[in-house]
Design goal:
single chain; Rossmann fold
Length: 339
């Protein structure tokens, strides 16, 4: 009998790809999502990829009564927790909303799990907990000094879950700090389609390539990097999804808490991504270089050694594969799940 894994935020970008990886690994994903930044039509696409649509429940992790019913009615073996808000700029404008959603929501979920006796939790954290790093590659032991409410919300949850595990050693917790998720499933059936103006580079490049936007705005061309543009650690969303499954398997086999980076260990500049996308799409990406964006750092990539040593996981998909899969998704779904 496959184990049921509750995936909060499972209709979102990383959550939906993780449902694919869970199904491929023999688990039964159960999706909980409030559809605040996702689309229920992803479930039909998941059925086409995996052969069966995951069960879906529309709801919010802050709803304790709903969670209590869910844990009472379903044989849930563990939880992968994605549900939360994720735009840095929005978190600066609405910090209370971010703390309510990301921190309070996580606390309600953990309390419901505790009451139900479910002790396996994989938490979707972020490399933003490091803030402006002293150097790259960034190890997990680097100072934690997030520079915005979004990053602080992730760190608060990490710290609280650490306290929870120290208080009750039966908890098995994975804290996954990942860098810049990009790409799409190789079928092109699921991918990223942010609502409104994209906050991240790859969706913006995709929309320029498909004609939805005129050109890419590059924020800064005078950084101390090889081509003057910012360098980041881009990781394929399916590599990330498989990292969550690896963390889940580790939690099933060993008690305790692990904190690992999920990244490639390689940095790519904005113009590296533009060139790779031009190769993948056969289209020229128009761009202009503007001023630096406040708060951005020149170069930022992770050290993934601990994830390989602890979880047996490493990223295997290249930047060219990330761009090719993103383009396949964007070309086939220029307006997301609307077609």
């Amino acid at each position: 009998m496959p184990k049921t894994i509750l995936v909060t935020g499972g209709a979102g970008f990383i959550g939906s790809h993780t449902c694919v990886a869970l199904a491929a690994a023999g688990y039964l994903p159960l999706v909980l999502d409030n559809l605040g930044n996702s689309d229920r039509r992803v479930l039909d696409r998941l059925a086409r990829i995996s052969g069966v649509a995951p069960e879906f429940i529309e709801g919010d992790v802050r709803d304790r009564a709903m969670l209590d019913r869910l844990f009472a009615e379903r044989p849930i073996a563990g939880v992968i927790h994605f549900a939360g808000l994720k735009a840095v700029g929005d978190s600066v404008a609405d910090p209370i909303g971010y703390y309510d959603n990301n921190v309070h929501g996580s606390f309600v979920l953990a309390a419901a799990m505790q009451a139900a006796g479910v002790r396996i939790l994989i938490f979707s954290s972020s490399a933003t907990v490091y803030g402006d790093p002293d150097s790259s590659p960034i190890p997990e032991s680097a100072p934690l000094r997030p520079a915005n409410p979004y990053g602080r919300s992730k760190l608060m949850v990490e710290q609280a879950l650490g306290d929870l595990q120290r208080a009750d050693a039966s908890w098995r917790i994975g804290l996954l700090r990942y860098f810049n998720p990009v790409g799409a499933h190789e079928t092109g059936l699921i991918g990223e389609h942010p609502q409104g103006r994209p906050n991240n580079l790859m969706p913006f490049v995709c929309q320029v390539a498909v004609g939805l936007r005129d050109q890419l705005a590059v924020h800064g061309g005078d950084y101390p990097t090889p081509d003057g543009t910012g360098v980041r650690d881009y990781v394929h969303v399916m590599d990330l999804a498989e990292g969550h499954v690896a963390a889940l398997r580790h939690a099933e086999s060993q008690p305790g808490l692990v904190t690992v980076n999920l990244g490639t260990g390689l940095g790519a500049s904005v113009l590296d991504v533009v060139k790779a996308f031009e190769r993948a799409s056969g289209r020229k990406i128009a761009y202009h270089i503007g001023p630096r964006r406040p708060g951005d750092v020149p170069a930022y990539w992770g050290d993934p050694t601990l994830a390989q040593d602890t979880l047996g996981w490493r990223a295997t998909r290249s930047l060219d594969a990330m761009c090719a899969d993103s383009w396949r998704w964007q070309q086939g779904n220029p307006r997301g799940y609307e077609g």
